[in-house]
Amino acid sequence: MIDHYTILANFPYSTEAQITKSKLDAEGIRTMLLDEKTVDSDPLISQAIGGVKLLVHNDNLKEAIAIYNQIRAYEKDEQGNAIVCVNCESTKTLIAEPSRKNIFYMLFPFFEKRKYRCNVCNTIFQ
Question: How far is the first Cα of the chain from the last one, in angstroms, to the nearest whole number?
């Protein structure tokens, strides 16, 4: 049964996953939560197991991605303003996964400058 589902998003806590799941369920999309009870019983292991996974049925995946991209929280600067993409001027930006190709940044990741990824055009910028 789980073979017919794809992970849409990971959440550190089950409450965040439940809110998104409820929205998708209301739109008629088949969803499941994985590792919800494990994280609820011991929240400290959430990061170790990858958090609570929101699964979406493969038949509804494109529709679920579109809805999730509309309701998800996007990054803001220190003043609370939306961060604008340098390429397409969209405000749908997320924190990009760090590359950490340099051994220095592997040892001291907090020195690496934060990079953002546009969710519309996939441009990575600072």
Answer: 41
DSSP, collapsed to helix, strand or coil, labels residue 64 as helix
Global pTM reads: 0.67
Task: Say if residues 115 and 107 touch (Cβ distance below 8 Å).
Answer: no
The 10s digit of each residue's pLDDT in 54-111 is 999 999 999 998 898 888 877 777 788 888 888 888 877 877 766 667 777 777 777 7
Residues 52-84: b if buried by 16+ CB within 10 A, e if exposed: bbbbbeeebeeebeebbeeeeebeeeeeeeebb
Residue type, 35: D
Show Cβ contacts of residue 65 under 8 Å, excluding neighbours closer than 6 positions. Answer: 8
